Amino acid sequence: MSEIISLLDAAHAAVSADPENEALRLRFFERLADGELVLLLEREAVGESLEPRIFDLEDGPVVLVFDREERLASFSGGIAPYAALPGRVIAGLLKGQGIGMGVNLGVAPSSMLLPPEAMDWLAVTLEEAPEEVEAKPEEFVPPTVPAAVIAALDGKLARAGGLASAAVLAGVVYAGGRRGHLLALLDAADGAEAPLARAMNEALVFSGIEAGELDVVFLRAGDAAARAMAKVGLRFDLPAPETPASPAAPAAPGMDPSRPPKLR
Fold this sequence. Notes:
By secondary structure, the chain is an alpha+beta fold. The protein folds into two domains: 7-127, no CATH class; 137-237, GMP Synthetase, Chain A, domain 3 (2-Layer Sandwich). The chain has helices at residues 7-17, 22-34, 69-76, 87-94, 116-127, 147-158, 193-206, 224-232, and strands at residues 36-40, 49-50, 54-57, 60-66, 82-86, 100-103, 112-114, 137-141, 166-174, 179-186, 215-219, 234-237, 262-263. The chain starts with 6 loop residues before the first helix and ends with a strand.
């Protein structure tokens, strides 16, 4: 097998060294969901329809994914039909199908088999949507969240370039005395509110902090509340959006969240 060269390799190595560490297991599944995976197909995709190649193993049927195209080529011995999809999309496609997932089988340190139950759990976890609430902040204070939450938020926001200009995390005291933490996303792009809120909810879920609570609000950088939070809060600067060098090509099946591919 090859040396550790990918983020998925590193996440797998960490959980393999400490298999009882739930936080590390969650981090591995977050990396699997957020990364782009190469799904081995039976034949080339036609339109929005995909036909994954299914292998019947002793433990049941599985599809095969790889986190690098060269790893797929190494497994298949040459060119093979595939679709590059986010891990979360593949998990959603497998949900309830009774099909597991083989990851980098035989070609990387992160080689492993995930049973259907793991894929169902991941798909359901990713479907959880944040609840909408109304509350009036009365005071902002420095945040006191665990380091794991800070790291999880930083990781999600680092992959949200162009969706907002920055984010500020602060402790908050609401009218009535309830205390919590508030994350303000500044200058969000049109239509970005829902995916950003979902991503922040996932950051909390995958941080491994039980019974965690984090409220999210969308503000303009010049708003009074944003300025007040900035005085005591922790600021995250989001990367600038990448400027495409040429007109975008038609999206591959599954890359548009509103139009997931169909399994055949």
